[in-house]
Structures
1.
Amino acid sequence: MLEIWGRRNASNVMPVMWAVGELGIEYVRHDVGGSFGGLDTPAFLALNPNGTIPVIEDDGFVLWESNTIVRFLCRRHGHGTLRPESDQACAVADQWMEWFKSTAYRPYIDLFWAIIRTEPARRDRQRIAALTETLNGALGRLEGRLAESDYLAGDTFTMADIPYGPLLYRYFTLDIERPRLPKLAEWYERLSGRPAFQDHVMLPFGTDPEAWLRLERQGAAGGVGR
Ligand SMILES: N[C@@H](CCC(=O)N[C@@H](CS)C(=O)NCC(=O)O)C(=O)O
């Protein structure tokens, strides 16, 4: 059975869990990282010398790096569905997964930390505004792509869309300035209607570090959909 290490509210664990949910894979998940700790033990470091989550073990085969795990699971269980069949469509899906990490992830995660994971009295408004602008600029580029097709790699939902799920859920939930990006909003509607998204991505995160930690200890209090 597939084993997964990582607290379920971690930004890099959620895409893996969403993929697992979409693909209907049976799994056992271990709560490690964040307030659960456990990333600096010899046993965990033997799995992932970086001491980060997510990590999976599949029949003795160990893998880390969230997008690599998503690709591996889609190749094995979702060829022709989540993993596009043609080389070109698959390359486009890869391109958007890479772009997520190279361009969208940093402003998104820095913004999330600057708001939710920082005490309200210590929040830096200028930095929050600058990060919001950078993130909005990146998402504006997605708007152009989504004017061409319903999903990033074409007309159907694929692995390309998966890394963006946690980002979009938090983006549309945070109290920030958002420009009008109608195609992005429609895409988010389509993604957030998926049961596996509701189970694994729509995890409440509270409004400050204390609420964040309380929800984390409660297993992020379940998805909103079920
Ligand atoms: N590039 C890696 C980043 C892994 C990473 O930084 N994971 C974070 C959680 S999102 C982590 O392990 N943080 C330490 C912790 O949760 O205690 C990936 O995509 O998997």
2.
Amino acid sequence: MEQFDLKGRKALVTGGARGIGASIAETLARAGAQVMIGDVMADVGQETAARLSTSTGAKVGFVPLDVTQDDAWASATAATIKQLGGLDTLVNNAGIEITSLVVDVNGDDLRRMLDVNVVGTLLGMKHAFRAMRPGGPAGQGGAVVNIASVAATIAFPAIAGYSATKSAVDRAPCWRP
Ligand SMILES: NC(=O)c1ccc[n+]([C@@H]2O[C@H](COP(=O)([O-])OP(=O)(O)OC[C@H]3O[C@@H](n4cnc5c(N)ncnc54)[C@H](O)[C@@H]3O)[C@@H](O)[C@H]2O)c1
């Protein structure tokens, strides 16, 4: 017996091609949800979607998505709503970690982590809220889950920049609609 019954739910999982995102997609599918995986890695994402579709029996699809791009979010949410018949769950999982001691930190690496981890998460909230709110193209309300990290609150060696971005995600409930 599944711990959660998510039959009828329609979810988009970012960064779902592999790793934690793929496991989240699988868990949602096993609980009865229909799932779209959004990722920059199209080949791996399509393979994962096909594998999960077979292993869970649920509808699991793939949509190309670079979470740092506003236009890509608009296309991905529209494609999800079209293919699943709605959208009521977004898991903002896509994230990157570039390690460096503070004395060696590189500005471009910091900006890239901010872009994917913080900008990507907030753009996801924007497009999910627009889609799920009353009158929106999905319009049934729903839930947004943002994946932060224990590194948001605990200091570890060589990931100060990553920790800063995950602290921002950890504070996302303060980002009022
Ligand atoms: N692995 C850990 O120990 C750990 C611990 C705490 C939190 N997290 C967080 O969990 C999430 C997943 O981590 P993981 O270990 O599975 O990482 P991973 O590198 O294995 O997978 C990340 C996925 O995100 C995708 N991605 C990267 N940039 C993207 C972008 N711009 N747009 C769309 N997709 C993009 C990648 O293609 C990949 O499929 C991240 O947010 C990470 O910070 C991981």
